[in-house]
Amino acid sequence: MMNKLILGRYIPGNSLIHRLDPRAKLLTSFYFIGIIFFANNWQSYLLLGLFTLFCVYLSKVDFGFFLRGVRPLLWLILFTVALQVLFTSGGEVYWEWGVFQITEFGVQNGIFIFCRFVLIIFMSTLLTLTTPPLELSDAIEFILRPLNVIHFPVHEISLMLSIALRFVPTLMDETEKIMNAQRARGVDFSEGNLIQKMKAVIPLLIPLFVSSFNRADDLATAMEARGYQGGEGRTKYRVLHWHKKDTVSVCVYAFLTVALIYLRA
Amino acid sequence: MEPIINLKNITFRYQGEQTRAALQDVSLTVNKGEWMAIIGHNGSGKSTLAKTINGLLLPETGSVSVGQLDLNEENVWTIRKMVGMVFQNPDNQFVGATVEDDVAFGMENQGIPREEMIPRVKEALEQVKLTDFASKEPARLSGGQKQRVAIAGVVALRPDIIILDEATSMLDPEGRQEVISILKEIKEKYQLTVLSITHDIDEAANANRILVMREGRLVDEGTPAEIFSEGPSLVEKGLDLPFPERLKQALKDRGVTVPETYLTEEGMVDWLWTSILNK
User: SUPFAM superfamilies in the record, alphabetically (chain B) (predicted)?
Assistant: First the structure.
């Protein structure tokens, strides 16, 4: 079950993309989602598509991972594309039936929407595939830091995030163990109708909650025993380094924006 | 010998439990450089005692002092700097997302500059023989390795005292051996005082002094030789016998006369081969 989920998974590697600063990757990924809405004709989509494929090539991650990243969202994409195709008017009409019509503009819009979806998914998959979750949380902390001015608890949020990430594998293991223990006592997690399936989850969820609270209690005690008193006066062991290649990657995005504005209709 | 931990007439009751106090009138002194073991069966108040020493629990009556300081709200953080603690569950005390982050966590709390943290993390990991694991995540470590990381986190803080709150109870025999031998090394190197709370009788046999607890009270105190030579009466206190004692018992049952005094494993081996040669 866990192996099929590509979203949020990290593939270790040592490519150029892997070595970029996580702040650069996070910011540019969001920026990419912003500028993709600038694209409105064949040329601009072609440019963005080639750019994305180039990034994928640089990451040296197997292309299959990206395709599998698209799969869980496939129905949403098809639904949206279908709506676009069926309800957009204008241009030459190819087919008509009641309120539905397939037109030249509709088909064009459908293809554009499809490209937009796929490119956004590729880019965000690229971010998570090439950045360890921990670096991502460091980057989020850095980016949120200005919010300290309005008394937003940046340190607490980032500690929360890193503890949550640290416990994901532990809780996965635990879930697996509880499931097996309950299976050994006759619980069937996959059979029956929806309500029966939901009921079968109870002997899994309750112990999991109890153990999470116990873990939290133990962890809090251990943290306190090691002198944790909150963010004030605390130093940091992990630091991020901004290199020349990160500046270059930001510049590439600046060029991309300029090119996009030039190409758009 | 200079006393480093001093507990006077400690009483402690958990909230909502009126029937029996978890600790009743406990007084004890631990000397500097000593390895003290506290044994006793489940619910005898061992872990509660450990938590009162660094202020994780505040006693109802009585006083605690560590070093020259009395434990109170003002001093509690200074005392926690002097006392490092390793807990029972290796999974639940791992704060960092990787080994080196976890070792650095305590130092971060103390505001130690990063330039100083880097060599200290390295040194602490060398000490527990986990240098190659510096960037590994906790999910990829064994229980014994996680406890060694916890010890490294304590060592990096340069405390005076290490408290082991059943630190080896969730480990397999191999991991337990590893952790104990590393602790012995560290104790010698940094001249630490060790207070180990344990079920494991073989771990207690390493100590200079053993305290026996029962139902919130200290019922016995002495060197391992003194405590273990009590023999079968230890079992009545709910404790196990160390292996040489059990062997002695088995020999006695088979009609062999054995020495009354407590023997360590080496002592037992010596006695065995000399007595066989005499036959």
Answer: P-loop containing nucleoside triphosphate hydrolases
